[in-house]
UniProtKB/TrEMBL annotation:
Phylogenetic lineage: Bacteria, Bacillati, Actinomycetota, Actinomycetes, Kitasatosporales
Species: Streptomyces kanasensis
InterPro entries named in the record: AAA+_ATPase (IPR003593), ABC_transporter-like_ATP-bd (IPR003439), ABC_transporter-like_CS (IPR017871), P-loop_NTPase (IPR027417)
Pfam families given in the database record: ABC_tran
Transmembrane is among the record's keywords: no
Protein name: Multidrug ABC transporter ATP-binding protein
Family: Belongs to the ABC transporter superfamily.
GO molecular function: ATP binding; ATP hydrolysis activity
Length: 258
């Protein structure tokens, strides 16, 4: 555990890492010298709005480069276009909201995602079926996207994110808009993904971290305030501490609103 930047665990090379990265939007510093490593399993990102979580995810998706520092993905420094294109094919992303053509079936949408991620043409149909089966949507493969419920759409969103069998999966607020029962099922799915890939999940919900994550990083005002296991975060608040009370211990009143 550390109350600052995390170093990779000995003998466990990270799937992704950021080292001393800074990102600025004009006068606003979104990330300020942040270093984090992301090994296999599920890592949660906690922090209030404006903490830097979404910016950190954008670095890991290669959507933008840092102003300073280095991003390493799948053992390669993402420093040139060729490397970025190569690593993108091994990354899966579920944004908080994703666009889709409502007349596409779930199968067609997932195959389209496979095409975008350069899955060979002869494998796309089977890979899409495999991904839909993983999220329990195989029996709805022929249902049009515009006819699916919110929870079913989120599951198809996961399917498109893993259709390329990625080593790294990035999830931005994956349970937003779901009812309590749907959240329970979705958390089980995320835990399953963590046995196959390194998963990084940004969330405002302490319950998502409690029931899903192996590790957690707390961000506030573009800085890392804590990195460690979920149990270590809880322990900061004393005996009987929870993720929420540990989080409040770390951020204090200034970051109390998740």
């Amino acid at each position: 555990m550390s109350l600052g930047n995390e170093r990779a665990a000995v003998g466990s090379p990270p799937v992704a890492a950021v080292e001393a990265v800074s990102v600025r939007y004009g006068a606003l510093v979104a990330l300020d010298g942040v270093s984090l490593t992301f090994p296999s399993g599920v890592t949660g990102l906690l922090g209030p709005n404006g903490a830097g979580k979404s910016t950190l995810l954008s670095l890991l998706t290669t959507a933008q480069p840092p102003a300073e520092g280095a991003v390493t993905l799948l053992g390669e420094r993402a420093a040139d276009r060729r490397t970025v294109r190569r690593v993108r094919e091994r990354i899966g992303v579920l944004p908080q909201s994703f666009g889709f053509y409502p007349r596409f079936t779930a199968q067609e949408f997932t195959e389209y995602a496979a095409w975008l991620r350069k899955v060979p043409g002869r494998e796309r149909r089977e890979r899409a079926r495999e991904a839909l089966a993983l999220v329990g949507m195989d029996k709805y493969a022929d249902r049009r996207m515009g006819e699916l419920s919110g929870g079913m759409l989120r599951r198809v969103g996961i399917a498109q994110a893993v259709v390329n069998r990625p080593a790294l999966v990035l999830l931005d607020e994956p349970t937003v808009g779901l009812d309590p029962a749907q959240r329970v099922g979705f958390r089980e799915l995320i835990r399953e993904l963590g046995t196959r890939s390194a998963v990084v999940m940004s969330t405002h919900l302490a319950e998502d971290v409690t029931h899903t994550c192996d590790r957690v990083a707390v961000l506030l005002d573009g800085h890392v305030r804590f990195t460690g296991t979920v149990d270590e975060l809880c322990a900061l608040a004393g005996e009987g501490g929870t993720v929420e009370s540990g989080y409040l211990h770390v951020v204090g009143p200034e970051g109390a609103a998740l």
